[in-house]
Amino acid sequence: MITHAKEAEKFNKDEARVDWHDDTLWFVRQKRDRMAHNIPEWEQLREKASQIKNHTLSNLDQYLIQFEKHALANGVHVHWAANAVEHNQIVFQIIQKHGFQKIVKSKSMLTEECHLNEFLISQGIEVIDTDLGERIVQLRHEPPSHIVLPAIHLKKEDVGETFHQHLGTEKGAKDPQYLTEAARQHLREKFIAADLALTGVNFAVAETGGIVVCTNEGNADMGAHLANVHIACMGIEKIIPRQADLSVFLRLLARSATGQPITTYSSHFLRPAPGKEMHIVLVDNGRTEQLARADFRNSLKCIRCAACFNTCPVYRRSGGHSYHTAVAGPIGSILAPNIDMRKYADLPFASTLCGSCSNVCPVKIDIHDQLWKWRQILAQEGHTGTAKATGMKLMSAVLSNPDIYRFAGSTGRWFLRHVPSLASNSLNPWFKQREMPEPPKESFRDWYMKNRKKPKGE
Amino acid sequence: MKVGLFIPCYIDQFYPNVGIATLELLEKLGCNVAFPLNQTCCGQPMANSGYSNLTKGCDANFVSNFSEFDYIVAPSGSCVLHIKEHLKDADHPEKAIQIRKRIFELCEFLTDVLKIDNLPASFPHRVGLHASCHGQRGLHLSSMSERNEPSFSKPGHLLSMVKGLDLVQAERPDECCGFGGTFCVFEEAVSVKMGKDRIGEHVQNQVEYITGGDTSCLMHLEGILKRQQSPIRIIHIAEILNSSISN
Known about the structure:
Largest sheet of chain B: 4 strands, parallel
Strand content of chain B: 5-15%
Distance between the termini of chain B: 19 Å
Oligomer: heterodimer
Radius of gyration of chain B: 17 Å
Shape of chain B: globular
Helix content of chain B: 40-55%
Low-confidence stretches of chain B: none
Strand content of chain A: 5-15%
Helix content of chain A: 40-55%
Structural class of chain B: alpha/beta
Number of helices of chain B: 13
Mean pLDDT of chain A: 95
Radius of gyration of chain A: 26 Å
């Protein structure tokens, strides 16, 4: 079974690469800090965003209905998908109805979550991811390792090699401008040839029935404007009530994500152009179940900025693939168990609970508290393994009883002093790269009894 | 003022000097300190591993040891935070609530309750401070680099009163060391890498000591330092604040 700890250990085999990964993402976090600290009302802005999201989640049914009504009135086709399979079928049926062969995609982690690419490719459709980072990982047959910077685990040399193999660039080329130009030419061909464009949705406005897609490369616009049919796929939590609310989220999103004041393009799609078609697919895929879990509903506030990834000291040193889920990092670690507790039981433990994630979150999701709460549920449901459960029961028995605790403590220290090999061996994960603490002859309590404790009656 | 001294299990067993320094410091600052003899552990190791259902024994024991005090003080932000957030006792719910309100980490007790503004301590060394996450973010012992808030540090403030101490700031002042309770064992590779990176900053700063308010983080860093055969030593902040104080 894949676990975060095992994958992270593999990632850590190349320490220089871990350092590079860490520095690269720390650079983004520092940019985020500078941008956030430049706005005096930053904390109020976070609070405002959090309140809007809270309000929306409490009235999600009404806002979804309102959104649908306005979207239909705008001439948009609206579809509802209960799960990933339905979502993929809906997209496929639209493609099939027109007899299309080629589609271009932009900005959709939801389709990663639903494994749309694999499905469409298996049906003989050509699917091209057009975000540069997404295209790079797609050529390498890898999933994205980060939701905003999908190829952040790759160096320019890796990209050069990938492009050399797939796009015919010169071997050994690593100049970003040269490589980007090659990607640009390659993607231009794909855009022009595409029958249909699929995009994600950053915000869907109930009041207007419109959607907003935020990109830095303009590729969502390029795809949607060139193709005759545009499908926008969104999780139902992307709804915001009013157009005016956008100002709050657009100020927060790019600053939190990349440290930019705003994304290069914030593209608003309201209705199809004359003679063209626009579809919106609203996807549940476990979200309503999560909404019903009081402790975890807050995770639906997420606007997918990835600030929690960049700040997470564990993510930076384990890489996105170690999370083995579409949305990695701290937020992914609370979203994934909601979809499959058994498969993702390791993720809430892939954290030191340092709390930095909750602090950077622009919509104030209590991420580290939810990680703690997931741990409780996973242990209760038996997903943490019998060895751990037995160990914890034993530990609890020792620590619950002062006499047993003192006996175990002095015995343990005696053994550590006299038979250090009991702990200092290769079976002890602590000892692998760390020395054991030196066990003292007496505990603090022993010292206290000798030096402070007054005889009875004094 | 009756102060109950809580010495967390791993400090009791492995770092008695931290307990002694804490006790001596509080006594020298005029507190009437008692150490309840039947204390064990706050229960955090189980709770953070997902087994908060197994902390009932620790909780009940904690309540029976500490319910009579005006204040409870411990040299560990992490254990204090756990008690503050999670201590429960079905038989004595009121007592548990009172304890949660009355428990303090040592540095916050010195700055917020005793309001210490000078210390006759002396520690003429170059020292790096490790801000432990649970103390810093959980108990808000210092400002956090992620937040837009005025800069402050309770441990830093206390250390500034120590004569001869040269406090050097790490480049990433508040990044986690990777200890994380059982994380340090179950995620050994990442845990050690995080610790090595924190140590690297202090090495660059040419410190003689790394200090902090959580012995658990320091224990993890000490394990790596010793494996690297580094001359840098770890020392709990209580030991620095207690150094050379004369009555």
